Recover the amino acids of this structure.
């Protein structure tokens, strides 16, 4: 039995909207286990609750119910965070810093000494092909460069566990390929990767296992290899669409227990 | 040791952010214009009074230092939340108090530098004015060694230090409100409390005059809770006049401001620990 890195049981999260204090259940009884060295893809349409899940795992949000353990600690414990890297969705960076200053700042927050920071930053800038842009202010970066800088930032501490929230959304094909290659390299190194996405071809290439989230519920989970070779589905997309359609039908039939905000609000 | 690294990293980043912010330069520019206007007024006044210049200069530096503290301070934490850079910070192994303290220290350092620069400018002008109005039969080196260095410059520096103590309180208030409130509301709160701190006597008088128990409770509460900035200003005036320096009173107020800062930053930490980051 390999070590469990993420353990989630009966996780519930209600968002309180500012107006009228209305409750909206973004996650409803989620169970999830990710093992060491695994690359886990959390899939789901916009508004399914993927970002909410990652924020709960990182301690940015507090659960309404259920238990969460990450690397054996409560979410947000600094001992766990020291071994975690995180790339948020659509990251925004300090526009007034250069790429080097930006990475140096986070290197300090990871408590790396000056020599270590220097070495690590040079390595990572090379890895994400930003060595040339090292002294350029971040405000002049393109979307793809931002995303790659975000990846570099997430790897400063040589983490054991990496959270990536839609790292390949909004990138051009080259940008997507770069990110995919970096992720494959990390996987090679034996890192555990928890990855939100709806870019299914990339997921197929990278992930060992996927879970499909729909309206805050996990409606399916399986090994990518098994899904694609079982003969029941043409490909991952077929699997995904099938699960979502079934779940949606079920949802319509039961009349829906959770209010439906997804179409109106889209991604947050 | 680890905390020191985190706090200084946040402080340095905040310092960089503020000194690379155009708002700062706009405010400093206005401060310079105001000081120059004061200079003109000073030279026009009948007695060519250096004291007017000193008072006006110190008032200008306090006012503009406070404005910078309020404008930038109330945005400090709010901007990190609004722009979602907070996601990157709070997923690093740092404690919330380290973040809050670093933000505060970064801005305090920035304002120290700005006030020091404005203070040097003021000292230069006052020295120049003194030399201009000095008895022409006395050589300028004599004025320098007899008046400026032993008396005028130390008096001004003392007043500047006392002024900074006041600004520290404003920075702490702005940082505190910034952790849970929008910049506009934080500005109103911070500015309001700052002014109240200067009017503690009036607050007390108001409470005694008023018949409404609510007003009495509020004014009394503010009177008792706020540091007495009016007293600090009076002491500053006396220090400027070369009067004796009430070291016990000053250290009392200093300790009070320090306690205040620690309390405000602790509350800010508790808020940052409790709240969620959407
Ligand atoms: N702060 C919030 N207040 C209210 N509702 C929210 C908030 N954040 C997210 N939601 C809602 O929760 C649901 C899940 O959001 P999210 O986790 O961002 O989805 P995903 O990342 O899968 O697109 C969405 O319907 C979204 O509108
Ligand atoms: Mg999302």
């Amino acid at each position: 039995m390999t070590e469990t890195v993420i353990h989630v049981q009966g996780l519930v999260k209600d968002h309180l909207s500012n107006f009228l204090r209305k409750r909206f259940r973004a996650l409803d009884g989620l169970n999830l286990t990710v093992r060491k060295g695994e690359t886990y893809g959390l899939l789901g349409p916009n508004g399914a609750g993927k970002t909410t899940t990652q924020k709960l795992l990182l301690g940015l949000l507090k659960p309404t119910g259920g238990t969460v353990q990450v690397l054996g600690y409560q979410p947000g414990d600094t001992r766990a965070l020291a071994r975690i890297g995180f790339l948020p969705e659509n990251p925004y960076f300090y526009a007034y810093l250069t790429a080097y200053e930006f990475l140096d700042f986070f290197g300090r927050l990871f408590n790396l000494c000056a020599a270590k920071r220097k070495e690590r930053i040079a390595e990572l800038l090379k890895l994400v092909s930003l060595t040339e842009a090292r002294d350029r202010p971040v405000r002049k970066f393109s979307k793809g460069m931002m995303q790659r800088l975000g990846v570099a930032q997430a790897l400063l501490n040589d983490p054991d566990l990496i959270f990536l929230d839609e790292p390949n959304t909004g990138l051009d094909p080259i940008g997507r390929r770069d990110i995919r290659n970096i992720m494959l390299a990390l996987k090679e190194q034996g890192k555990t990767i928890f990855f939100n996405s709806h870019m299914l071809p990339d997921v197929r290439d990278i992930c060992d296992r996927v879970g499909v989230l729909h309206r805050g519920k996990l409606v399916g989970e399986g090994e990518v290899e098994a899904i694609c070779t079982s003969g029941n589905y043409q490909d991952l997309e077929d699997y995904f669409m099938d699960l979502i359609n079934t779940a949606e039908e079920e949802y319509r039939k039961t009349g829906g227990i959770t209010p439906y905000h997804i179409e109106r609000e889209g991604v947050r | 040791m680890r905390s020191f690294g985190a706090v200084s990293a946040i402080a340095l980043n905040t310092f960089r952010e503020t000194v690379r912010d155009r708002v700062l330069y706009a405010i400093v520019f206005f401060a310079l214009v105001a000081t120059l206007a004061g200079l003109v007024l000073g030279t026009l006044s009948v007695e060519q009074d250096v004291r007017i210049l000193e008072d006006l200069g110190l008032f200008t530096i306090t006012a503009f230092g406070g404005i910078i503290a309020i404008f930038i301070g109330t945005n400090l934490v709010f901007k990190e939340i609004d722009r979602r850079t907070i996601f990157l910070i709070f997923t690093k192994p740092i404690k919330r108090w380290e973040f809050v303290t670093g933000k505060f220290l970064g801005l305090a350092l920035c304002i120290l530098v700005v006030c020091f620069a404005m203070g040097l400018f003021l000292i230069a002008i006052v020295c120049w004015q003194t030399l201009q109005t000095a008895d022409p039969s006395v050589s300028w080196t004599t004025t320098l060694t007899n008046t400026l260095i032993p008396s005028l410059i130390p008096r001004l520096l003392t007043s500047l230090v006392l002024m900074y103590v006041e600004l520290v309180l404003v920075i702490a208030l702005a940082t505190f409100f910034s952790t849970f409130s929008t910049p506009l509301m934080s500005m109103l709160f911070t500015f309001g409390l700052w002014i109240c701190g200067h009017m503690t006597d009036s607050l007390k008088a108001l409470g005694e005059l008023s018949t409404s128990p609510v007003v009495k409770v509020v004014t009394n509460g503010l009177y008792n809770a706020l540091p007495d900035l009016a007293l600090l200003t009076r002491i500053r005036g006396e220090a400027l006049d070369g009067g004796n320096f009430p070291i016990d009173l000053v250290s009392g107020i200093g300790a009070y401001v320090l306690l205040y800062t620690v309390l405000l930053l602790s509350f800010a930490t508790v808020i940052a620990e409790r709240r969620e980051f959407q």
